[in-house]
Design goal:
Domain FAD/NAD(P)-binding: 5-308
Bound molecules: flavin-adenine dinucleotide
Keywords: FAD, Flavoprotein, Oxidoreductase, Quinone, Transit peptide
GO molecular function: FAD binding; quinone binding; sulfide:quinone oxidoreductase activity
InterPro entries: FAD/NAD-bd_sf, FAD/NAD-binding_dom, Sulphide_quinone_reductase
Helix content: 25-40%
Number of strands: 22
CATH architecture of the largest domain: 3-Layer(bba) Sandwich
Number of domains: 2
Protein name: NAD(P)/FAD-dependent oxidoreductase
Shape: globular
Number of helices: 10
CATH class of the largest domain: Alpha Beta
Structural class: alpha/beta
CATH topology of the largest domain: FAD/NAD(P)-binding domain
Length: 397
């Protein structure tokens, strides 16, 4: 199997972590299909939007993160034929595989909210979900002295479910320090009935939002934007009512789904309304096509989509793929571990770690992570990026 052809779709966090591990295990025929010349460390975008990190710290050339001995095909997948075991690329190449890793991340669907795409980057609307606009978030926050600030989260799974609210806390804390928070009305629009999926951290976050005087709108969604008038329509799905709110700045999180080619193809999970890939939640292997594995944001796993989750998924996907190539049953299991570093102030953070059962899974002993901590903020700003570039992407952590 050392010469087996393994195609990895996506050279983001998940794709590179798995490719590095397969290479370390001695596979020669690993190829990563990735159209972007740039690799991003997306968790830093929250701090870019909060004025606490430069965008350049989140970016490296794709060539520098592609493991030695792995072939980078600079092209994108447009379809997979799992019966024939081939991937069709945008340039019309057919890549045959013995094993396939699906890791193309999510698709950002800005156009699902009328008016949002037109207003983004202009009309006082920004988003940390696009590196082109994260810097604009900070310009808007820094310039605000009074008025209404709206922060939104769409319905459905999104990558880093904490990110839509973290930026609200960073902004509110900045305004507090400037002495203008009392002149700001801050509205956080959440589609869920609670502030966070894990109840213990939810209790802490409710206190954080209350401390800043943030109006949290539960079970609510942004459904339209009128950029010229600076008006957002917010629908309360529980009450069945809509309200038009005038804003002076808005941070929007776009609705997300699997990439269309995946959502519309044979590898999508019919149980996922968003078209994410169908895999066994413990082995990360397709129940229909035993040579196919999926992980990261594109996989339909009942846990929070984060890079921290990918860190625990990658060794499982790599080990089970090697088992498949050797004709063995999958030997490794993923338990749903995910982690969300919840920045709650300019130098404070809560590290929420939990699994499929929503059981708290602290990985740092003797540290009370239900308390907002400065050492955890330093971990997020400096420790985790170093762990990412130096160890994770090399298959060492
Ligand atoms: P990605 O890293 O997004 O990689 C997908 C790759 O696939 C991309 O390189 C893309 O170019 C490529 N691709 C797309 N389509 C195709 C195609 N057709 N063919 C080939 N390649 C394709 N996680 C944390 O753990 N902690 C955090 O604090 C955190 N904060 C975040 C804050 C923000 C604002 C955002 C946006 C994300 C955050 N995340 C955080 C989430 C984290 O970045 C993702 O969960 C992680 O990157 C998922 O890895 P992935 O490989 O599945 O997707």
């Amino acid at each position: 199997p050392s010469a087996a052809r393994v195609v990895v779709i996506g050279g983001g966090t998940a794709g590179i972590c798995v490719a590095a591990r397969l290479r370390r295990a001695g596979l020669d025929g690993v190829c990563v299909l990735e159209p972007s010349p740039v690799h991003w460390y997306q968790p830093l975008w929250t701090l870019v939007g909060g004025g606490e990190a430069p965008l350049s710290a989140s970016r490296r050339p794709q060539s520098s993160v592609t493991p030695r001995g792995v072939r980078w095909v600079r092209d994108r997948a447009v379809s997979v034929d799992p019966e024939e075991r081939t991937v069709l690329t945008g340039d019309g190449q057919q890549l045959p595989y013995d094993a396939l890793v699906l890791a193309p991340g999510v698709q950002l669907n800005w156009d699902r909210i009328p008016g949002l795409a037109q207003a983004l980057g202009r009309e006082a609307v920004s988003s940390n979900y696009d590196p082109e606009h994260a810097g604009h978030t900070w310009e808007l926050i820094r310039a605000a002295r009074s008025g209404t600030a709206v922060f939104t989260m769409p319905a459905g799974p999104v990558k880093c479910a904490g990110a839509p609210q973290k930026i609200a806390y960073l902004a509110a804390d900045y305004w507090r320090k400037q002495g203008v928070l009392g002149d700001m009305r801050v509205i956080l629009v959440l589609p869920t009935a609670s502030i966070f999926s894990q109840p213990q951290w939810a209790a802490v976050l409710e206190g954080v939002a209350a401390r800043y005087g943030i109006e949290v709108r539960y079970s609510s969604e942004l459904v339209a934007v009128d950029g010229a008038r600076r008006e957002a329509t917010i629908r309360d799905n529980a009450a069945g009512t809509s309200e038009v709110v005038g804003y002076d700045l808005m941070h929007a999180t776009p609705p997300q789904s699997a990439p269309s080619w995946l959502a519309g193809g044979p590898l999508a999970d019919p149980a996922s309304p968003y078209g994410y890939a169908k895999v066994d939640k413990h082995t990360l292997r397709s129940p229909d096509f035993p040579q196919v594995f999926a992980l990261g944001d594109a996989a339909n796993l009942p846990t929070s989509k984060t890079g921290a989750a990918v860190r625990k998924q990658a060794p499982v996907a790599a080990a089970n793929l090697l088992d498949a190539l050797h004709g063995r049953q999958p030997s490794a299991r993923y338990d749903g571990y995910t982690s969300c570093p919840l920045v709650t102030a300019r130098h404070k953070m809560l590290l929420a770690e939990f699994d499929y059962e929503l059981t708290a899974r602290p990985s740092l002993p003797f540290i009370d992570t239900f308390r907002e901590r400065t050492d955890m903020w330093l971990l997020k700003r400096y420790g985790l990026p170093a762990l990412y570039w130096r160890l994770m992407l090399r298959g060492l952590a």
